[in-house]
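Worked Example 4.2. Consider the chain below.
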Amino acid sequence: MGTKEKTSVTPDLYEKQETIRNLILFNDDYNTFDFIIDALVEVCKHSFEQAENCALIAHYNGKCQIKKGTMDIVRPIYVEMTNRQITVEIV
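Applying the procedure from the previous section yields the following C-alpha cells:
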C-alpha cells in the first residue's frame, strides 16, 4: 500500500492576495465644492464630472466612495487628502 502525498495551497499564495479597500470621502462644513472637486481631480485623477458627482454624493448622502484598490493604491491618496484637511477613511 503506497502513501499518498497531501497537497495544499502554500501560505505564499494567501499573502499575494491583497484585500481590496475603499477610500471614502465624508461631507464636511469646512471645504468648498470647488476645493473638493479640484482635490479629486488632482489626487484621485478623476475627471471633472466624476469629481463633481462624488462631491455632490458626499454632500447629500454624507459620504461617497472615491477610490477602490489595494492598500498600496489607496494609502497615498488618503495621506494627500488628509494633508489637504479633507475627511477621508479607508475601509
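Helices lie at 11-16, 33-44, 48-61, 71-83. The first strand starts at residue 21 and ends at 26. Compare this with Example 4.1 before moving on.
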